[in-house]
Amino acid sequence: MADISEAPHTERYIFRGGEKACAEADMAFGMNLPREACHAKVTGERAALWLGPDEWLLLGNGFNVQLTALPYSQVDVSHRQIGIQLKGNHAADMLNIGCPLDLDDAIFTTGMCTRTVFGKAEIILWRQDVQTFHIEVWRSFGDYVRGLLAIAQKEYM
Amino acid sequence: MLLIKCPYCGERSELEFSYGGQAHIVRPLIPSDITDEALTEYLYHRDNIKGVQAERWRHLHGCGRFFNAVRDTTTDHFQATYKIGEAQPASGAKSDG
Amino acid sequence: MGNAFRNKDGKYIDYTQILRFTFDGKIYQGYKGDTLASALLANGVHLLGRSFKYHRPRGIVAAGADEPNALVTVQRDHARTTPNVKATQVELYEGLIAESQNRWPNLRFDVGALNTLISNFIPAGFYYKTFMWPRQAWGKFYEPFIRGVAGLGVAPTEADPDRYSQRFAHCDVLVVGAGRAGLAAAMEAAEKGLRVLICDEQNMFGGSLLSNADVQSTESLLQTMEKLHQYSKVTCLKRTIAFGYFPHNMIGLCERLTEHLPNPAKGDVRERLWQVRARHVILATGALERPLVFPGNDRPGVMLAGAARTYLNRYGVLPGKNIACVVGHDNGYLAALELQQAGATIAVIADVRTKPVGRYIEQARQAGLPIRSGMTVTGTGGYRRVRNISVAPIVNGNIDASDTIRCDTVLMTGGYTPSVHLFSQSRGKLEWKSEQNAYIPSQSTENLSSVGSAAGLAGNDRGVIGALPMTNKSTAFVDWQNDVTVKDIDLATREGFHSIEHIKRYTTSGMATDQGKTSNINTLGIVSNILQKPVPEIGLTTFRMPYTPVSFGIFAGFARGDLFDPVRTTPMHSWAIEQNAVFEDVSLWKRARYFPRNSESMNEAVARECLAVRASCGLFDASTLGKIEVVGPDAAEFLNRMYINAWSKLTVGKCRYGVLCREDGFVMDDGVVGRLATDRFHLTTTTGGAARVLAMMEDYLQTEWQDLQVWLTSTTEQWAVIAVQGPRARDIIAPLISGIDISAHAFPHMSIGEGTIHGITMRLMRVSFTGELGYEINVPADHGRAIWEAIYEAGQAHGITPYGTEAMHVLRAEKGYVIIGQETDGTATPDDVGLSWAIGKAKPDYVGKRALIRQAMQAPTRKQLVGLLTLDDQVVLEEGAQICATAANTPPMQLIGHVTSSYYSATLGRSIALAMVAGGRTCYGKTLYVLMPSAAIPVTLTAPVFYDEKGEQVNG
Ligand SMILES: [Zn+2]
Known about the structure:
The complex is a heterotrimer of chains A (157), B (97) and C (956).
Chain A (H helix, E strand, L loop, with lengths): L2 E4 L5 E5 L2 H11 L10 E4 L2 E7 L2 E5 L13 E4 L4 E7 L3 H5 L17 E6 L2 E9 L2 E7 L3 H14 L2
Antiparallel strand pairs in A: 1-7, 2-5, 2-6, 3-4, 4-5, 7-10, 8-9, 9-10
Chain B lengths: L2 E4 L3 E4 L4 E5 L13 H9 L7 E7 L7 E7 L5 E6 L14
Antiparallel strand pairs in B: 1-2, 3-4, 4-5, 5-6
Chain C lengths: L13 E10 L2 E7 L3 H7 L6 E2 L6 E2 L12 E5 L5 E6 L9 E5 L13 H4 L8 H5 L6 H13 L13 E14 L3 H12 L4 E4 L15 H14 L5 E4 L2 E7 L3 E7 L12 E15 L3 E3 L12 E3 H9 L8 E6 L3 H11 L3 E7 L7 H8 L4 E3 L1 E7 L6 E8 L2 E2 L3 E4 L2 E5 L2 E3 L2 H5 L4 E4 L4 E4 L6 E3 L26 E3 L4 E2 H9 L5 H8 L12 H12 L3 H4 L14 H4 L16 H6 L3 E5 L2 E6 L7 H14 L2 E4 L4 E6 L3 H8 L12 E7 L5 E11 L2 E6 L4 H15 L6 E4 L4 E7 L3 H5 L3 E2 L12 E7 L2 E7 L7 E7 L3 H12 L5 E2 L2 H11 L33 H4 L2 H4 L4 E8 L11 E3 L10 E11 L4 E9 L8 E5 L4 E7 L14
Parallel strand pairs in C: 1-7, 8-9, 8-13, 9-10, 13-27, 15-23, 16-17, 16-23, 17-18, 32-43
Antiparallel strand pairs in C: 1-2, 3-4, 5-6, 5-7, 11-12, 12-13, 14-24, 19-20, 20-21, 20-22, 25-26, 28-29, 30-31, 32-38, 33-36, 33-37, 34-35, 35-36, 38-42, 39-40, 40-41, 41-42, 44-47, 44-49, 45-46, 45-48, 46-47, 48-49
Helix pairs in contact in C: 5-6, 7-8, 8-9, 11-13, 17-22
The complex binds zinc ion.
């Protein structure tokens, strides 16, 4: 049974823009935004999660910098969502009570991330390790997601 | 439940998608210029094909992208999915299976 | 009677564990490993129920999922009572309580059995023909009567206390059915290192191997299981039925986890829904034994030969001691041989074939069994149990004189029918093989394969289908569960029903809960024979899910109680709870509806809240409003194209009320849009419209206007929104704010700015949905409650009053502000609801523009937003009530509109209402009538604004 814990508060931004703006962002942020679909990049305490071909979720400090040359959009969503950490045995099984993804670690490998659904809530799921998942969910869906995970814990005691 | 291949993310469950109706209906460039008949056609008339049709989907709970798909409505089999702006692939060829 | 029919050779019975159970109140004993059916048979109990239509005594026919008769109710407690379960699938446990069904007052003496005396009067289509006339009798007599006699068990009335679970799973190979073929397929896949999931409906793997007498079957099964368990990528699910085959190789499984336990722990999961996505599916579902159709074939004691073998070899139970066999397949001889070996007497083997040859037949001859071939059955005797059978030779196509033979059991077999249910559900094509008398899988549309007997039978293993030659057709049952006889099918064909789909519905053959597992193929055979057409020309009915019934619980899964739906709450929710707020559901959100003080009623609380806002100041949680941040150099152009309004001239620091139409010209949503920078807008939507608006905007951006450089991000939950509304609003918040000059001239109505409040970053909008001076303070959600409390504290001296959505509705109605979805219904144009002023008329294009210039959209007779004032100013109209031009309230009358909003306004001391009335704007002052249950209430039509018509308050 995997443990459920609240991830510590962090700054969060949604970065949206085309490839050129992205390249500029790589420089400004001092880390490359992942271009590969459904993959996250981690540098120190900071992470960038690919959410769509022009959309990234940036987690951590140091992303609040203005780019200059090219149009893009960066929006502070630090308070929009919360992070939930799921760590331990059967973490993937617990998620699969409500998530339709194939979470076999050979398929949804460590470092992959995606928006998906968990029961009736939309979540962002990021595999940090074979048995460790980070979930981002809009704050008002937090109780629901935690409630469903608590049920899942009972099933995989 | 369908298994749908998002052109960006790959195969995902239908639960992550929303359906968007018939594909390749282009909004008139200057709608004010079109006749009532053309407007009616644009707004309301859909083919509703029994067989192979091109349709819109959105990977709503995924990458968020709209894309197009060619699906046989009698078997639910997708022959292809492709990005917005790409031409509809010639149908008939079985791409799944 | 203690297990008089039990021997010690049941291979899967644990004779050391005696289990006691009750059936219809009587206590019996069985063993671990038994089903309810095998345990009852061991006790000599064959009578298990009454039939559906004629209430004929019925016994056990099969040994598994194909059982049509032996339906019982299993009861754990009042709430945990499961009707209509097959005794052949109920695993015995200590203390099990089962009841027979469909009988009154009891199973042995059943009043409904009178139906059997009038069976000649209940032919096929009886209900269609009889209950046609008079029409009035339907509700009064026929329907209650039919409902009274119809149905099998009784469903419990209490809520289901059990837990049900769900999970998604993926595998390379899903094997359905763990018999010989399924296990071999699973082993092959496992050896390749694939992810394998194998399931079987029974409590142990083995399928038909479990029914065999030979030791090798058991040993090879044990070895296979041992090997299979060594593969970590193999998942074995027993007690799990594959009930449905869905597109793209998704299979629904129902796993039963506690049904077999005497005392499941509280909170244990009872059943689990598996939604399995498999790259490849292997259907190893085996074959179902086919009964024979002859007169009296439904008497208790008449059983399938293969089922008898299962009871004998697996459970150590003899179905009887003096056994007659009617066989159309060699399997019947094997059953006779094994039963004789076990000590039973074989009274006769009547083979319906003329010259049967084969290994078992030869063995039976050598064993001296009384074999007669070229026979038919003319009837059986006995009431609650078969006592004899009459068999007659067929001579030159005619039934010769019959011979009555005493027996206590009749075994029958017509051969096997491949179980192609799931294959057919997968939309695979079936093909008729006349040499096998069977439909077998042909072309498949999914990535699947059928193996073992599910793929077809060996060689010319055809058996017999249809009915045996007979004269008395009214007791020759084809479908036991629905009481369909050969006579019914005969009648249906004579009445002109020739398609199998029609025959099925008219006779109800194959439509019971067993889904025709034993009856479908024989029905086809009978119709084929009557119509003298080959079987494939008769057609084939559709196989539908579920393969066997599954409980609703698995589909509900976790979605019950607190987790039925996500319950979305705002950052200030906890404060509202502490203040005793009453909440209402708005989409998934909980919103405070009003804040009653002491013993206030809703009306009293709402009146107080409204008066406070008008007189001093109110505090309102508007956090649920949808918010989207629109960013990019083309943001203004994008908004120009989306909204009916013009945005280019909106300067930074200003807001505007925006209206969104769909392409068909009807109002879809509204909200305030503020410009934070030339390339950045803060956009709000209605609470319920947030997701819809974002999806529509993304749609246009991604598919129509890829030329625009603009991006959207939902910020609904980033911001807690605190509305401070009322003449004292500025006085209250001013001391808390820095970074913005909020004086009346510096920050007029419809301004937006960024600053801090109480030290927290804030987006401040000066907007009003009440008609008063008002602000909406957006703070990062985590700080929502703290800032709310700071404002509340600061407002105490000014009489600040929290108000809920109900007061908000009244306040905005006093001003005639529309609510999308309340005044509008998806067919209202902006002009209909008085918003044509918002249209940017000079714009070349916006979503809905072209549709709005259609003639019908401009018709003067369209319903328009108006105000209504009742002549009696204390009468509050009902929302939704229809409006008529005259007082006459007897139909027919012309309805010209309806009430959309209606409240008592404490500010005005009278009731007010908004309505949509045809051509209403030209009729101000006219009297109309609102149709209420009590009377037609006279109202005066007015402009839709009741308070501060000049709109001066907002500029305070
Ligand atoms: Zn995608």
